[in-house]
Design a protein that fits this description.
Elements: H1 5-12, H2 17-27, H3 34-41, H4 45-63, E1 66-70, E2 72-75, H5 104-116, E3 121-124, H6 136-147, E4 152-155, H7 158-168, H8 172-182, E5 184-187, H9 197-203, H10 210-222, E6 226-233, H11 239-256, E7 259-266, H12 273-276, H13 289-303, H14 314-317, H15 319-325, E8 332-335, H16 342-346, H17 356-364, E9 369-373, E10 379-382, H18 405-408, H19 421-425
Helix pairs in contact: 2-4, 3-11, 3-13, 4-13, 5-6, 6-8, 7-8, 7-10, 11-13
């Protein structure tokens, strides 16, 4: 059902009066409060459906019927990490077993290869390797930009930025300035998970704090470095946690205007340590379908006045369910990815490659118009009609040509070598 202004009053008469009032408030262009958002999370039956219809209406009014996507490649250059987050199956601490590190020349090769296949962006992020060279992130960016000056580097989460600044013994602001000079164009707003300190201390002790995450993001925005924003849901969090997270994102955006999009990320549970080993009572298997629909819809409703773009994650949700989410407030399909290792390691069924033509087909089959965009949401080309021929990634018959995460961790030349191993061997106490 496509809601129009004249339909609103008629359809909302069937809703619970409290929910109808909240939805009418959103339709009128006013911000709903956290308390009101909590009420929407309890919607059932026809009220549940109406939350989705209003989110879809707001989406259409804000950005129209175009669904955007970006041609990009993920380069997760190491899975070695000093942190041991409960939700992360990607990390390999100091263990050499299945630990890998891509040399800069291989990172650069992957960026160059992506560009030749039509990518406009490389997303560069990874684990936090112990004893990391302070200049590693800068060197990666400089080498990529030297080889592929026109590629957009979307790189390094707030956690990585804080780590890089610490290793360099400089302020976050100075470190961000160095990254910008080296070629970073935008940063991922990952490492957010849930912006509640008590819950973060439970699922990821030692992870970047809420305060530090917020400070890094605000500093980047004020320096002209835009970012995405994210939320991981479907694990231990309550609806109140979700709403407070969304409210925090909203307030930051009102202050800085630096978020390009908001991306809800459903918890991939199967290989996640905190689920696999049942480390916490009440741990969930990610959010169910109805819950995921509500998260996306309420994200649109709460953020509609400050963030235009709600992206769903086809890696987390799968292509088919992603189509449904496009009718529940989302307007962006994400990227082609080529290689996505972090969700794959956690047990996600998707992440290797979704060709542009496949994305366009999924968008067009629900009656929407596909459009390729760049990282900051400037439209490159709208596809009212599907092009003939198979250029770039559309011409790739076998996605395995780019390699997979499970192949990567077995390649000997990329195997992680623990720099501390020899120190332990040579210790006089051994």
């Amino acid at each position: 059902m496509n809601l129009k202004n004249k339909d609103i009053d008629g359809i909302l008469q069937y809703a619970d009066p409290v929910i109808a009032a909240i939805l009418n408030k959103a339709i009128s262009g006013k911000d709903i409060t956290s308390r009101e958002a909590l009420v929407l999370f309890d919607a059932e039956g026809i009220d549940f459906q109406l939350v989705g219809k209003v989110a879809d209406y707001l989406r259409r009014k804000k950005v129209g019927d175009t669904v955007t996507y970006v041609v990009n490649r993920n380069i997760n250059f190491t899975n070695v990490c000093i942190k041991q987050c409960g939700f992360c199956a990607f990390s390999r601490d100091f263990r050499e077993e299945e630990g890998y590190t891509l040399p800069i020349e291989e990172i650069t090769r992957r960026a160059k290869e992506a560009y030749t296949y039509g990518a406009t962006e490389v997303c560069v992020q990874a684990g936090l390797p112990p004893d990391m060279d302070a200049g590693l992130y800068e060197n990666i960016c400089r080498e990529i930009k030297t080889e592929v000056p026109d590629i957009h580097i979307h790189g390094f989460s707030p956690e990585e930025i804080l780590y890089g600044a610490s290793r360099s013994k400089i302020s976050t602001k100075e470190y961000l300035s160095r990254l910008k000079d080296a070629g970073v164009d935008t940063i991922p707003g990952t490492a957010a998970e849930i912006l509640n300190q008590k819950l973060r201390d439970k699922i990821s002790p030692g992870r970047i704090s809420v305060k530090d995450w917020t400070d890094v993001i605000k500093t980047a925005h004020k320096m002209g470095i835009k970012s995405t924003s994210t939320m991981m849901f479907g694990h231990l969090e309550t609806n109140e946690h979700r709403v407070n997270h969304l409210d925090t994102i909203r307030e930051i955006q009102k202050e800085t205007g630096g978020f390009t999009e908001f991306v809800p990320l459903n918890f991939i549970y199967s290989e996640a340590p905190m689920y696999k080993h049942q480390l916490h009572e009440g741990i969930k298997k990610g959010a169910n379908s109805n819950d995921a629909l509500l998260v996306h819809a309420i994200s649109r409703i709460m953020l509609n006045n400050v963030i235009d773009n709600i992206q769903m994650s086809w890696v987390k949700e799968g292509p088919k369910f992603s189509q449904l989410l496009l009718n529940w407030g989302a307007n962006d399909f994400g990227g082609t990815l080529v290689n996505e290792s972090i969700s794959t390691a956690a047990g996600a069924e998707y992440g290797q490659l979704l060709r542009p033509k496949e994305i366009r087909h999924l968008i067009r089959s629900i009656g929407r118009i596909p459009a390729e965009r760049n990282t900051t949401y400037k439209k490159i080309k709208e596809f009212e009609v599907e092009p003939t021929g198979s250029e770039g990634l559309d011409g790739v018959d076998d996605a395995n040509k780019f390699g997979s995460y499970f192949e990567l961790i077995k390649i000997k030349k990329y195997q992680y070598q623990n720099p501390r191993k020899n120190l332990v061997k040579d210790s006089p106490n051994m």
